[in-house]
Specification:
By secondary structure, the chain is an alpha+beta fold. The protein has 3 helices and 5 strands. It starts with a helix and ends with a helix.
């Protein structure tokens, strides 16, 4: 998925688990009367939107404090200590 496609076009992905296609964004209004992204749909349903990054090896990294690189911030490490 490209950044331009996500922010300007309509993007569907095939889920490796269920093999269905899921709409990630629809700015061309093919599936909806309004422009939307998966983030918009999740927020509307009250679900958590969690972002991450994909490393060079294809791994996606998520951290408890919401940061996406280098692990938890020093502030988060202090808060996690007993």
């Amino acid at each position: 998925m490209s950044k331009q496609g996500y922010h300007k076009g309509t993007v569907l992905i095939t889920c490796p688990e269920c093999k269905n296609r899921h709409v990630m964004s629809d700015h061309l209004r093919i599936f909806s009367d309004t422009s939307m992204t998966i983030e918009d749909l999740m927020r509307k349903k009250g679900q958590l939107v969690k972002k991450g990054t994909i490393g060079a090896d294809g791994d996606v990294e998520f951290w408890d404090d919401g940061s996406t690189t280098g692990g938890p911030t020093p502030e988060a490490r202090i808060q996690q200590q007993p």
